[in-house]
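User: I'm preparing a small set of examples for a lab meeting where we compare how different chains pack in three dimensions. I only have the primary sequence for this one, and I'd like the structure in token form so I can line it up with the others. Please keep the answer compact; I'll paste it straight into my notes.
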Amino acid sequence: MRKINFKKLVVFAFIICSYSLQIELFAQPVKVTVGADILVSDSIHLIQNKRIGIVTNHSAVLSNGVHLVDTLTKLKNIYVTTLFGPEHGIRGNAPDGNSISDGIDSKTNLPVYSLYGKIRKPTKEMLQNVDIIIFDIQDIGARFYTFISTLYYTLEAAAENNIPIIVLDRPNPINGITVDGPIREDEFKSFVAIAKIPIQHGMTIGELANMFNNEKWLENEVKANLIVVKMKDWKREYIFSDCDLPWIAPSPNIPDLETAIIYPGMCLLEGVNISEGRGTYAPFLTIGAPFINSNELLVEIKKLNISGIDIKPITFTPKSIENMSTSPKYKDIECNGLSLKITDSKNIMALRFGIVLLYTIHKLYPNNFEFRNNWLDKLFGNTNLTQMLKNNSTPKEIFNVWEHDLTNFKTLRKNYLLYQ
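Assistant: Understood. Below is the structure token output for the 420-residue chain.
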């Protein structure tokens, strides 16, 4: 019988444990410091003794869990005079698409002007008591997410009224590397496609601010006096769960990071008569329609070798959900479709999956499939997707259409990247 060398065994076990510990430590989230924390700790001089207007919502929280507005209103020689709220309101609880009214902030008694109603850009009257503007809102990383449109118009207003603006940077929660999709064409400029960027831009809100401002994209090519307060220790490959920051749902139908990651592709379903899962507690991870056969659709999707997503059949009935979706598609009507679960958060190509899904449903149910009042064109930024689906073009043919323009954008984008 062979004698066991216990000394060598102990050394080997120690090496294995040490290696495992290193892997575990490496996998731990990194403490990222957002721009709001940097402003308060290192750059407060930028706003001292000035009347401050803040464009923000509930997501503007510091590392101590206190909201930026609540923090600044308690500091000496800091004078917050005016608040501006984007879609979903200053406290972030208004359902998608609902117009927001002006009002008074319940916590601070400060006046709140809505930038998601009849007025989308701060007016001269709104800014009459403002010497400097702060913008701090958590973005999601997709072109049609309206917070970057609010940023765009706030930059315009700052430039037109000669008011300096400070943008406090936050992570792109779905990573700062993946850049995918068509560049918006000029005639499709709208509040869901404000700039000539791809659907998944791979940039932070601070980087976008610099791009909007310096590329002469603002109305009449105005340029704001802009300062971006950078984050500390954020890296481009990070998704939000790598950052050791609390997840605060940026809007009612993006309750978690998994939903944010899939959103750049699944939001396209808003442009057709397929439920994107509004009216359920898993929006964008639940899709379907009354005319779909779940198992039939699943079989077709699996033929395309989709990776990074676990897909299962589901039957669901969209309901009115307060503060989420009051009038969802197919409200109170049973739908058949698919339930999605992301298995590879860092490598999934969400936009391409959304297009594959549209292609497959259109292929299976051409007599039931409907386009909704050019909304898909608005979201996509041109008519290519609609026309190519109607012509039964393959997903690969659709993807190839944007490659040239995307390459040019990536070259432009390099000029504005603030992080490695």
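A couple of notes for your slides: The first strand starts at residue 51 and ends at 56. The longest helix spans residues 6-26.

User: Perfect, thanks.
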